[in-house]
Amino acid sequence: MSRKILIVATSVKEIPERKLPTGVWLSTLARFIRVVEHYNYEYTIVSPSGGEVKIDPMSLKWLFTKKVDWQYFRNPEFAERLQKTPSPKDINPDDYDAIYFAGGFGSLTDFPENEFLQDYTRQIYENGGIVAGVGHGISGLMNVILRDGSYLVDNKQVTAFSNFEELLKGTNKIVPFSVEDELKKRGAIYKKSVLPFALFIVSDKHVITGQSPCAAGSIAKEIVRLLRNVKDSIKDVSSVLIQDNSMTLKPGC
Q: Domain of 36: which CATH number?
């Protein structure tokens, strides 16, 4: 049976009360999907409300993009997928081996309280699957409660867009809450890169998180590694941290 990955992108098109256009952060989709397609995995892009998913205009700036991002942005098939995303109620979580929450400011609005997504994430995780997120998209993991009553992130090493990075980008005045703070409140062991905006991911007990958008490709590779059950060179390692501080401080890597 082929492996399938569920990708969640925000339905929000405007930051509430700010009247600023937003959407999914392009690189968190493009770089993730490039790896998934390379390894011939099937995937579905779903959004909390279904229908059209917008690309955040800010994510199209040269500071945040690479060639691969533009390849997907200009791809008609990719554009069609974003025009006609199913809603969570239209899919069966039992069909998927992993769920990945893409980034973007809008995700802070429609990810955390979506009961369908919370339930699907729990089901996939407790069925032995993988749950993952990047940047602000990790807000989709923070309210997931397991059958034993504990938070999914409790006592797990995770990362997410940091308070310091929000401050550096000036988005601390825009976001409705701090993902870093909310994860800590739920018992997560929060980790972050020494340098802001560097490639940094944490993989702990089938929960994979990336601090900034540039981690999307590495998250996809870690999902593939786990789905293929490739063993680490060091046995019995429950947590893997990947950091590349050789990256420049260019946001989005």
A: 3.40.50.880
pLDDT in tens, 181-192: 999 999 999 999
The dihedral built from the CA positions of residue 162, 30, 120 and 236, taken in this order, carries a sign that is negative
Number of domains making up the chain: 1
State pTM to two decimals.
Answer: 0.91
**Angle made by CA atoms 89, 93, 94, in degrees to the nearest 5:** 135
Task: Give mean pLDDT, residues 151-173.
Answer: 94
- Look at residues 216, 24, 251, 45 and name the one whose alpha carbon lies nearest to residue 134: 216
Per-residue pLDDT averaged across 217-240, rounded? 69
The two structure tokens encoding residue 218: 């590495």
**What values do phi and psi take at 132, rounded to 5?**
-150, 160
Pull the structure tokens for residue 204. Answer: 């702990």
